[in-house]
Amino acid sequence: MIRRAAGLVVALSVAVAVVTTQVASAGVAHAQQSGEVRRVLLISLPATSWGDVQAGDDPHLQQLFTQSAVADMITRTAGRKSSIAAGYTALGAGGRASASTLLAPQAFETTEAYGDSTAGAVYRQRTGVEADGGIVHLGVEALVQENAAGLYDPTIGALGDTLEQAKVPRAVVANGDGAQPVVDQPLQPYQRAAVNALMDSKGRVPAGRVGDDLLEPDPHAPFGLRTDNDATYRAFSDAWRQGGVVLVEGSDLLRADLYSEFLTDAQARAEKLAALHRVDELVGRMLADVDPAHDAVFVVSPASPRRGSGLAVTGIRAPGVEPELLRSATSRRNGFVYVIDVAPTILGLLGLDVPKEMEGRAMEVVHGPARDQRVTTLVHANEEAVFRDSKVVTANNIVLVLSIALAIAAALVARARRRGAGAVRFFALAVLGFMFATYAAVPLHFGRSDNAAAYFGFLLVAALVFAGGCRLLGGRRPYRPLAIALAVTVAVHVLDLLAGARLELNSVFGYSATVGIRVAGQGNITFSQLSAAGLLLGGLAVWRRPGRRTVYAVIAMLAVTLVVMAAPPFGGDFGAAIAGAPGFGLFAWLLLGRAIRLRTVVILGGVLVAAGMLVGIADLLRPRDQQTHIGRFFDELLNGAPGDSFLTIRRKIDANLASFGGTKLLWVLPVVALLVWHLWRVRGGTIRPLYRAVPVIRQTVLALVVVAALGYALNDSGVAIPAVMALVFECALVFVALTPSDGPVSRWRDYSAVPAPERWGSEGESQPGSAIPVASSS
Q1: What are the DSSP calls for 554-570, one per residue?
Q2: Please, which residues have CB within 8 angstroms of residue 735's CB and are 6 or more apart in sequence?
Q3: CATH ID of 39-368, from 3.40.630.30, 3.40.50.300, 3.40.720.10, 3.50.50.60
Q4: Where does 217-370 have alpha helices with state H?
């Protein structure tokens, strides 16, 4: 049964791989960059979600979006929650950027008063650069220094520099000024960070308006100010006649968002919709001047709302761009793009080369749902992401409680000589079922109703059904229920990765677009479950059904699992490749009856490097606009400055160390360690004799330790990876420890009982699962 389960995993994985590859190759259509785009109107709607657009009465925006390719904008840059200034700065850099300096939004027309002088004079004093006109940023050096000291070191103003070198005009029309005079932490009176999107590396934008003449008093509006749409339209018209790229900000939306912390929920919502309606009026006037046959309109939202979390809007209407969904090589998932992808996309629309220092990738058009369902799909994606994020802490706490409860129950039953052992074994299967249920819940879309009780009720019922199903299908075979539970875990995750990782997005143990770094492929927690379940299933199979066919089936299963986890079109998990390959390779080596020598360790180290190089170079050879972060890292390593790749490694180390204080899953490790110690010492227990008598158990544990250690060291999630692996191991350990033996311990070691066709090799050759000999290289 176990051998057939392993074979089934392999067969189904290969079949789905073929089908998925064919479907993907037929279903993706890249945006046509025909070179006909002469001008780009960049409309910024700060802190605006698709839910806002859907709820508002904004005919011009809604009509524009029906003619556009659209997506949810992921606004995360250098931190989990990015400010509007950070969003604009990242947009202009084409890479993750921060903007915490108080000078981040301080941009002015050169003739504006600044203190006792003018902004142009102060700019010249601070930079030594003469500014004859246009707009200058007085905090550009502070932004450069802040980001140079950070973890990403983007090139501030890369988009502006590229447009300047190509002699493409650019202008910014924006003014989000407004400050509340009496608060604990006063807001900055100047809110002109929109300039950060199009300024060059010296902090200059040659045209546009950001002065107070764009505002008019309104006692009912946030901060008592609102945008003068007439003045803003005139500023836009002046810039639009010059051509190039013109950014116009719906600054009333920015003020409404900044003011929301002083308002009730209902009033904040009313102010947001009122601001969006005024912006819609301005958009309608501007669109009348746009030639759809030759001009592009690019709507962006560089930051999510200050209140709560979520995704923002984006859409492109341009010649050759079909009204479908957007994606990018950064997101690798239909309907999602990053704010850092905006700059490469603008350059692509204008037919300009993207500079290598930009981290983002140009957006492309992909087929999506019907036109009347596209916005609803994007709204639901945001709702489910926010719901998922709110349940992660609770799910982690439940897992920790389950781990502790399982350990206590197993310890008591082991000491009581198996009274209640069946119930605890069922409990162990249910814990595995709880992990499985968190992924099974994704297609049910609990986030759309925001019903936490229904969600956790489903997890409980699904966990019990999972355990009951494994027990029922296992029949009278003592270890079959555990084998089924592990096989289902492996098969579901492998098949899901082949099918596009649909169960990963918005699962509490997967990732979400609102806070996650990735929104495609395999997440780190899934890697933990999949690798642990695969190794334990393989060890169980070889123990219960030793023989050549079983070993071959286990090695094939692990090989398919590793390829699916690591391959960029599927799991795309670089950490899985370099963490899983040595551990899986070691396990296969030992199953083949080989000894561990010094050269074995060297070979495994080579496997680690080779696996990483294979995945990295394979991604590097893909077209540049389709490369994932893996290919970009190798590009930095091979063609960039040495510091570029060092920064990537430094980010990994910092995230790894921070993981110790970022998750309660850490406490699963000492719980499992104490349980192992107790079961090892309990009188009459089976764990110690099993470990000593069955070599493949020692081999499985060794492989698990290797993968867990490398997984911790090589992935951002850090300690959460060995913690989740320990939880899966705990479930298997409890099940095995409390299962009545089906014979004397000596029988478990007697491989001579294997029928002749199943024997591993000729007389004197090592048997599968034989003891681990350790010798020197000599």
Answers
A1: HHHHHHHHHHHHH-TTT
A2: 425, 428, 429, 479, 481, 482
A3: 3.40.720.10
A4: 229-242, 251-259, 265-287, 342-349
Q: What is the enclosing helix (H) or strand (E) of 467?
A: helix 452-474
Count CA atoms closer than 13 A to 688's CA, side-chain side: 10
704-737 as b/e, with b when 16 or more CB fall inside 10 Å? bebbbebbbbbbbbbbbbbbbbbbbbbbbbbbbb
What is the spatial distance between Cα 44 and Cα 292, in angstroms, rounded to a whole number? Answer: 19
Phi (first) and psi of residue 47, to 5 degrees: 55, 40
CA–CA distance, 285 with 469 (Å, rounded to integer) = 62
- Identify residue 7 by its one-letter amino acid code: G
Rounded to 5°, the CA angle 133-137-140 comes to 135
Alpha carbon distance 386, 381 (integer Å): 9
- What is the residue-wise DSSP string for 334-349? TTEEEGGGHHHHHHHH
CA distance linking residue 430 with residue 402, whole number of Å: 10
In sequence order, the β-bridge partners of residue 245 are 40, 170
**Largest alpha-carbon pair distance within the chain?**
97
354 DSSP 8-state letter:
P
Task: Write down the residue that tokens 């993907």 correspond to.
Answer: 24
Torsion angle of alpha carbons 233, 234, 240, 246, nearest 10°?
-60
> Mean pLDDT across the stretch 99-110?
94
Contact between 698 and 587 (Cβ < 8 Å): no
Q: At which residue do the structure tokens 């084409």 appear?
A: 94
Q: Tokens for 215?
A: 């505002």
Cα(752)–Cα(634) distance, rounded to whole angstroms?
Answer: 50
Mean pLDDT across the stretch 47-71? Answer: 94
Distance CA 748, CA 690 (A): 8
Give residue-wise pLDDT tens across range 556-580.
999 999 999 988 789 888 777 778 8
Position with higher pLDDT, 660 vs 376: 376
Query: Residue 602: CA atoms inside 13 Å, Cβ hemisphere, count?
Result: 5
Helix (H) or strand (E) holding 753: none
Pick from 255, 215, 196: nearest CA to 47: 255
Q: Which helix (H) or strand (E) holds 711?
A: helix 695-714
DSSP string, 41-103: EEEE-TT--HHHHHHS--HHHHHHHHTSEEEEEE---SSSS--HHHHHHHHHHTS-----STT
Residue 337: name the closest of 379, 368, 365, 369 by CA.
365
3-state secondary structure of 511: strand
pLDDT of residue 571: 87
257, 47 Cβ separation under 8 angstroms: yes
Query: CA 242, 243, 246 angle in degrees (round to 5)?
Result: 100
For residue 316, which of 330, 337, 289 has the smallest C-alpha distance? 337
Cβ atoms of 322 and 28 closer than 8 Å: no
d(CA 650, CA 473): 48
Domain segments of the chain as ranges: 2-22+381-753, 39-368
Q: What's the sign of the alpha-carbon dihedral 377, 383, 387, 389?
A: positive
Query: From start to end of 138-214, where are the E strands?
Result: 170-173, 204-205, 207-209
Rounded-to-integer distance, Cα 58 and Cα 37, Å: 26
Mean pLDDT for the chain overall: 85
767: left (phi over 0), alpha (psi -120 to 50) or beta: beta
- Long-range contact list for 674-677, CB < 8 A, 24+ apart? 674/407, 675/407, 675/410, 675/411, 675/730, 675/733, 675/734, 676/733
Sign of CA dihedral 594, 597, 603, 605: positive
Highest-scoring range by mean pLDDT, 70-74, 309-313, 569-573: 70-74
Q: Are 358 and 644 in contact (CB under 8 A)?
A: no
